[in-house]
Amino acid sequence: MADDDGGANTYSATVTVSAAPPTEQPTPALCYAEGAQSWQDFAQGRQKNGKPVQASRSNPALALGLPQRNDTVNFVSLGFGGSLTLRFANPIVNDGTGKADIRVWETSFGDARRSWSRYPEAVKLYASADGVNWTLLGQTTDKDQAYDLVLPQAQYLKLVDVSNWAKFGPIGDGFDLDAVEVLSGCIRP
Questions:
Q1: HSE-up of residue 29 (Cα within 13 Å, Cβ side)
Q2: Intra-chain end-to-end CA distance of the chain, in Å
Q3: Among residues 32, 36, 54, 80, which one has the fewest Cβ atoms lying within 10 Å of its Cβ?
Q4: For residues 40 and 88, is the Cβ–Cβ distance under 8 A?
C-alpha cells in the first residue's frame, strides 16, 4: 500500500486461530424420550360394554416417548384386563436409594383435574431384565404413579390393567397410558 510520500508501508500480523471450546450437547433424555423404544405383546382388553376400544385409542406406539400431558389422543388405552410390554433401548437402573426409579403417566383425557378416586384407572407394573422372568413393582393408587425398581436393572416393563370396571360408564376402557418415565437413568453402551 502506498503512503502520502510515495513509499510503501508493510504490515504484518500474526493471527492465531484456536478451536472454539466444544459446546455442551444437551443431555439426552436417557431412557425417557428414546428409552421406551418399542412395544411388544400388546393384548388390548375391551370397553366395559364388551365392544372393542376405539381405534384412535388403540395404537401402542403412543405409549412411547415423553408424556404429552394434554387432551389430545396421544395415549393408548389398555382396555379392561389388557396388557402392554415396553422394551427400553438400554437397561433401566435401580439407583439403590429406595426412591422411585420409574413413573407411569396415565392420562385423564378431557379432564386433567379429575381426581383419581373419581376415575380410578389402575395397572399393575412388572419389570424384567430378560423379558421372561417378571417382578411385580406395585399397583397404581393414584394418577402418575412412581415406583422403585427393586431389581438391579430392567429392560422390560409390563403394564396390566386391573381397573374395577364397575366404577366406569359403558364406554370406559381401562387404563390410558401416556408414557413411562425413567427417573434414575439407564446403562448406556
A1: 15
A2: 60
A3: 54
A4: no
